[in-house]
Amino acid sequence: MGVERIQTLAFSNQLKELPPQFIRPVNERPENTKAVEGVTVPVISLSQPHHHLLVREVAEAASQWGFFLLTNHGISPWLFKLLQEVGEQFFALPQKEKEAYANDPSNGNFEGYGTKMTKNLEEKVEWVDYFFHIMAPSSKVNYDKWPKNPPSYREVTEKYNKEMLRLTNEVLELLSEGLELEKKTLKSSLGDEKIELEMKINMYPPCPQPELALGVEPHTDMSALTLLVSNEVSGLQIWKDNKWVAVDYLQNAIFVHIGDQLEILSNGKYKSVLHRSLVNKECKRMSWAVFVVPPHEVVIGPLPPLFNDHDPPKFSIKTYAEYRHCKFNKLPQ
């Protein structure tokens, strides 16, 4: 495939200025849309001893921010270290070896190694390469799409998948209780044991003019939840009160994004967070995003206990496949 990879471009010695296809419109450039100072995002500890306080903290963060950092979640720092090592080792492979996993989104083949997942109307390109594959359920996993090198990639990722499934259950239960619903409600509404977990490893190489580019443009996730960890190079920003807020790196914390499907199910009580990724002149940034999504055939709409005559449904009802199609093609929902 004749796709120009950002990593290849970034590490070519000649690159001193950003090629024009990466230069954002003036109103989108980081140099003109700086993050507000002195605002910190919610940090929530799962070891909070008072359950009702934990439920309240999670619900408030989900409704006011659509985002929080989760600590004391029970995932070993060693597993984070291994996960990051195997991801970095894949991106350090010779280009030809990586290209063997090239995906083809234009033909519906999203799994594999890729560059630029969605088109925007001005045809600006994001400063990121990625590797994307399904982690769960096992019936949907195609190991042929997973990296064979490094050899430990599968073992490490399967261990991480188990932890992500556990954490997904815990977070969805807390979010259900925050809506005064039975704690299994959100999980069952999203497909229960058929819920899918998708891994996307984002690789943002050093960028010669980071003030003009974006790693990922402003967007909300079409998932229900996104559970993300990154290397120590920060770059994530979220939109709050009409300003960008920088999310500082917090070691071993999980970044929890509320996605579109939970905003719909909650009838807007929880907020799908608008966010973007900046890039760095000196350092590569990497992140590991796990998208928690319903199967394509599941019908998603506001849950009946959450609307009435005074507070009617704010969203239409459709299958996740229909929602996904509209989102990818920038069609109205």
Q: Number of folding domains?
A: 1
- Identify the CATH architecture: Sandwich
Portion in strands: 15-25%
Total beta-strand segments: 14
Would you tell me the overall average pLDDT?
A: 94
The fold-level CATH name is Jelly Rolls
The biggest sheet, with number of strands, parallel, antiparallel or mixed sense and barrel status, is: 8 strands, mixed
Radius of gyration: 19 Å
Number of helices: 8
> What percentage of residues falls in helices of 4 or more residues?
25-40%
> What does the overall shape look like?
globular
Please summarize what this structure is.
The chain is of the alpha+beta class and 333 residues long. The protein has one domain (6-328): Jelly Rolls (Sandwich). The protein is built from 8 helices and 14 strands.
Description:
By secondary structure, this protein is of the alpha+beta class. The protein has a single domain, classed as Sandwich (Jelly Rolls), CATH 2.60.120.330. Helices cover 26% and strands 21% of the residues. The chain contains eight helices and 14 strands. The strands form three sheets. Strands 1-2-10-7-12-5-4-3 form an eight-stranded mixed β-sheet. The protein has a four-stranded antiparallel β-sheet with strand order 6-11-8-9, with no helix packed on it. The longest helix is centred in the middle third of the chain and has 26 residues, at 153-178. The mean pLDDT is 94.
